[in-house]
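Sequence and fold
=================
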Amino acid sequence: MAYDDSPYRRRNASTSDPTGHRQPGDTRYGDTRYGDARYPAAEPGRRGPAGYSTSSFSTVADFSAAGAATTADSAATGNSYAAADRPTRGSNTTRAATRHSRRRRASTALDDVFDDPYHGERGRDRLGVHLVWELILLLAVGGIGYLLYRVDPGLTSAGTRDPLLVYATGLGLFALAAGVTLRAGAPNLAIGPVAVAAALHFAENGDNGVVPVLVTGVIWAVVLGAGTALLVAGLQVPGWVGSLVAACVAVVFIQQRSGPVDLQGAFDPTGQAFVVFGGFVVLALLGGSLGTIKSIRRGVGRFRPVGDPADRRGGVAALVTSGAFILSMVFAVVGGVLLAAVGNGPVSPSVGLEWTAVAIGAALLGGTSVFGRRGGVFGTVLAVLGLTLFIRYAELRDLDIALYATGAVAVVAGLAVTRLVETFGRPRSTPVDDADEAHEAHEAEQTAGESTGEPEPVYYDGQPVGWSEPARAEAGWPSDPPTGGQQSWSASLPAQPAPARDRWDTSDNWGADDSWGTDGR
């Protein structure tokens, strides 16, 4: 039969009977090249000549050639594979590829993996923006110095230079006091009032010697700094709030004097002008250089918020911030004593807020971020020199520029520098980091959806289950059965009448009564 005539059966050479091998030239199966000498059969393990294969199925080499063609086409078109075959986000293929790409990171990038994101952005801050800005500051200082030299050619003489260096040292200590707390992420607003209080204390007790006065002032600075740190770090509140309390305490001490206080004693620091100024420069450069080390930079700036500002930053952040406040108060006391000693006049009992503005403005102009953590190396020294030369130039030219105005302009310019530092100084992100963040955000969305406990909607025939069609309500069809009274329908069926029997139906007779007498057989 036809369905028994299989093409895979053996046949004789002279007939179509299913016996024997197929002969050359047999066209029953569409292969006229079988047995042709022009098309030799392929050797075992090798493909035959081009254009002919002994099998109607593709071999492994066929798929390899197809894969090579696909790869070449992908290289030409830029499409690696079909969009339908692309792995979806969060699939095992994507995660495996991400892990493989992470293993190919450079060693410097691998070091950033160990950075705790809770302490700030992972990676090393870029210092190029600080170097560029410090070069601009150097040019500005040179320009102001040139203008001042034209007004006062005796600027390089000892009588003019030494007091200016001591004044710059006092102003520089104020800038260091502001910079150390800004780096810690807790700005100190009590720098000016504490400096004025220290200057008044030195003016009243200078005849006892500068060392006892400094020791007493440093002790009170440590106590005031510890109290401020206890308030700020203990309650984990912004630094400016706690330092405002310290400023009020210092103002109370200042307002106990009804007028200017004359200097007592004969301490003159101008004889050691280069020593004191060199000490300030060493402290500034040492702090800036240590700030370039990533671990120290991140450790000092731990108090800087990375998420909710109300979150506690931990014990290490509290300890570092406490040390920053204490050191800031000590710098303010020493700077106030130097300014009082170089002034050679009575000390006025002012509030001292103008010195706070100048100190914070100098630190910000030097490249220290108002948000904390980031800062330059030479910027503070250059900013202090520029402000000192400008204040001296304004005095010689009788410009009558208030110190409050100088501080305000310095703060505004420093805020602009902060924006540059935060924009171009943050760590450079990598494509893998961006992919990781996107993947983590996707997983967070999925986790948030699962945590709500709401089941996913089930759709039937394109509509969610439980969806009521408004057209039925408009047509007068009740969407729900009545809830009260007697229902208009019953679940039980009415009694059914017995089915009528066909009089010609003899099925029972054939089964129950043998009319033909077959039982007797």
Notes: The first strand starts at residue 459 and ends at 460. Confidence is low (pLDDT under 50) at residues 44-91, 103-116, 510-521.
